[in-house]
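Dig into what follows:
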Amino acid sequence: MILNPFKYYSKKYKERNLNSKQLAKMMNRWPPSIANRIKVVNVSEDFMKAKMIITQSWLNSAFDKIMFGGTTYSGMDMYYGMALPLILSQKGIEAYVFTKEANIKYLKAVKSDLTVIFELTEENIQAYVKGISENNKHEEWLTVKGYNKEGELCAETKLLTYVRNWPRSKDNEN
């Protein structure tokens, strides 16, 4: 029996045995999420959509009460790297994911909580599956949008996600 929640979720994640609620709990307990006041409020059962709220506080804002750009970016970067391996494992592909490149546009100063929306399409997933089956890797640009409390678009990030076949098989893991 594992009493440490970090070890519990880490083990389940490595086994690709998490459901959407467990993924949200794991991400909410991650130290960078806590420090930046990032909370995952909703993850769809198939992991294709997620919603996060970055709560504005004195810890993540400048003296003029505008949220730091790094806080905004950290909230926009974390989901795809966690969700894509789980989605691909449902298709029988063991893969690892990281952000290779990012382009963030700060369109408006963030002076309130920021709602961040993540959406993947079946076309995105099929492109990853095809790329991995043909080349053992695939890169694709994905977009994340952040809205303030008034529903105005404040930040838009384009992330170049790099997905590659996991080099170890489960049979000969060391």
In short: Residues 5-165 form a domain with the Thiol Ester Dehydrase; Chain A fold (CATH 3.10.129.10).
